[in-house]
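User: I'm writing a short report section on ligand binding and want a predicted complex to refer to. Could you take this sequence and flavin-adenine dinucleotide and write out the structure as tokens? A short remark afterwards would be nice.
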Amino acid sequence: MTTTASSPPISSSASLSSAENADVVVLGGGLAGLSLAIQLKRRDPSMSVTVLERRAHPVPEAAFKVGESTVEIGAHYFANVLGLREHLDTRQLRKFGFRFFFSDGRRDIDRCTELGVSEILPTPSWQIDRGRFENFLGEEAQRYGVRFLDGAVVRELDMADDGAPHRIGYEHDGAMHRIAATWVVDASGRAGLLKRKFELADGSDHDANAVWWRVDGKIDPNLWSDDADWRARCTPPDRWRSTNHMCGDGYWFWLIPLSSGAHSLGIVCDAAMHPLDTMNTHEKAMAWLRTHQPRVADALSAPEHMLQDFAFFRKFSYACKRVFSGDRWALTGEAGVFLDPFYSPGSDFIAISNTLICDLIAKDRDGAPFAPYAEIYQQLYFGFYENTMTLYRGQYPLFGDAQVMPLKVIWDYTYYWALLAPLFCGDKLTEVSLLGRLRPQFERGRALNIAAQALLRAWGEANRTTGASAADALDGRLLDQFRIEWFHEMNRALHDMLDNRAFQQRIAQNVARMEDLATELLQRARDAHPYIDAALDAETGMAALLGAASPNDRATAEPSLRAVWYAAA
Ligand SMILES: Cc1cc2nc3c(=O)[nH]c(=O)nc-3n(C[C@H](O)[C@H](O)[C@H](O)COP(=O)(O)OP(=O)(O)OC[C@H]3O[C@@H](n4cnc5c(N)ncnc54)[C@H](O)[C@@H]3O)c2cc1C
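Assistant: Sure. The structure tokens for the complex follow:
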């Protein structure tokens, strides 16, 4: 069946060119589509890949798209799987990790709790100027032999379900063209071409909004204090290279530096706690910042920080009913699902879905049965989506709690580095039999995480009820992730290349680490709020899960976190 894929009508003067063919046609040449094209060609240079991208290249730098901060999976994907390390090192910015300030309503940032690294952790990540990166990806794709058509708008999708080629109609240079493809991958982002055609859109109960803009110049948090010791807490003293999160109840504000010399800024918030209509113009966003993050607002009012753009999304999160099909089509990137930008998982999910799609296409080209794998990979992908969503859903009220939120960040990172990140970075994502053997560990990790999110939520609620969380926002402590030995080691170990037996042992150790941390968090939550167990589920809550490994049994074990992490008001 043929349907029109996007709303603008095809010009009546458009003429039809002769038919074309490709093994794979990628709809949309943004981050996901161009990365996939490169990955496919690196894996099998004989494959013919065409990318159809609506925008003309080169695209502008800086004020282009959001999605500028990478974390370990996405960074590994771009640097190592796609082989782009040199570009990242020389044309983008090496990121100084995440950094969080609990600074709602405050100008004295150096007196607020700061969470971050004092030195850069071993596994690298980068801040990405998206325009610069997509221009580079377009050139790189062509260097690999990808047929990259910019200024090409997909208009028609005639999708086969009988093994015959799919047929795509697109407009390019004023003419209408047709291309036949064995595989079609939708990487059209929020345009969601295949999602609309097959009515795959699915909602999300995570109701959060975002507004963002870019300004000229660099914003350096080190200039927000005259205290030389505070400035020197980081080596090198480059807080500006971090993804800086300024946190408060129900929201966070990002500062991301871009290599083109601009700074990206954005407010992300729980829709009920900070309605979008209080910030959906630049003027309103600045007024909101003057109330919630006045030090940042002061910095932004300097004349050198000229505004470049402003945009927003209402309810940015969504799911999808199907992303991989045995009928030789797939969705990747924002054409499929989107979670929440707090830990920058967008590029991670692009890396994961592209890798799964590459494997499906490779299996098909080898003549192997690939359709059952489409189902397995989809379950896996939706599982990652759901598990990662638990870090965000219902947790925004915690974001300003300077006592509990740092613990949550450590927990969330431990979970990520324990299971999902090693799987991807260790190149095990498509090893289905290994995944089967690892299932009990992954199930245990999942259950611990759900219980930990509930525990942290209950702890935050108890703090709010008793007014216990506010004062320690002012103590000027640095909660230094670099100095947590086991945390540092988990980060370093992400790139260990292990055989399957050693990998299984590593995952078991990582889950044991999660149990230790969970045990300690439960004990500390009980110390802070002796009746907290009443708020936890009797069957799935942390106390029930830890069972024999109760806090008292582990009382002599080395603490996971030093006392400063548990500072109470
Ligand atoms: C507020 C916010 C902050 C975020 N921050 C981060 C972050 O810090 N780090 C991170 O990793 N991720 C982040 N993300 C996610 C990130 O933005 C996405 O993961 C990423 O941009 C998705 O890339 P994509 O290629 O799927 O989509 P896009 O980059 O949107 O690419 C889709 C392409 O398809 C093209 N297209 C559309 N329709 C057609 C058509 N009919 N014909 C031809 N081409 C077409 C478009 O022109 C576009 O170039 C954030 C997201 C949000 C909402």
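A remark for your report: Residues 5-6, 27-33, 52-55, 65-70, 74, 153-154, 187-189, 191, 193, 210, 212, 266, 313, 316, 333-335, 341, 344, 346-347, 350 surround flavin-adenine dinucleotide (CB under 6 Å). The first strand starts at residue 2 and ends at 4.
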